[in-house]
Amino acid sequence: MPTVRKEIFIDRPPEQVWDAVRDVGAFHLRLVPGYTQDTLLDGNERTLILPNGDAVRELIVSVDEEERRMVFAVKEGKMPLLHHNASFQVFPDSNKGSTFVWTTDFLPEELAPQIQAQADRVSAVIKQTIENAN
């Protein structure tokens, strides 16, 4: 099973980064405004509404406060996924900021270029959004 791992530095303390990541119902506001238009929560299921009207349904698997780790799995979306699970994890960085790590395991393997491109693009938006937040 292929894995895409994206690691970025965010110039904000880990507590601030984690506060945004753990707020699973405000994904569209706190992490990726403009990239995602709305976030709907129904128990552990999250639906991301994209600007073009498409939707991605996800299962929130875990929000681990101690590890600063949030795990989710895509249940339904535009990509023809056979399997998808991912985690966002926040670590303290020696430069007084945070290291944000996004790890995704998925099938089929042929989607690797698309998933890598998405992780690159969305991580840049997450970094900018958190660094520009008050």
From TrEMBL:
Q: Which domain of life is it from?
A: Bacteria
Among the Pfam families in the record, one is Polyketide_cyc2
Tell me the InterPro entries matching this sequence.
Polyketide_cyclase/dehydratase, START-like_dom_sf
SUPFAM superfamilies (alphabetical): Bet v1-like
The protein's name in its UniProt record: SRPBCC family protein
Origin species, per record, is Cohnella hashimotonis
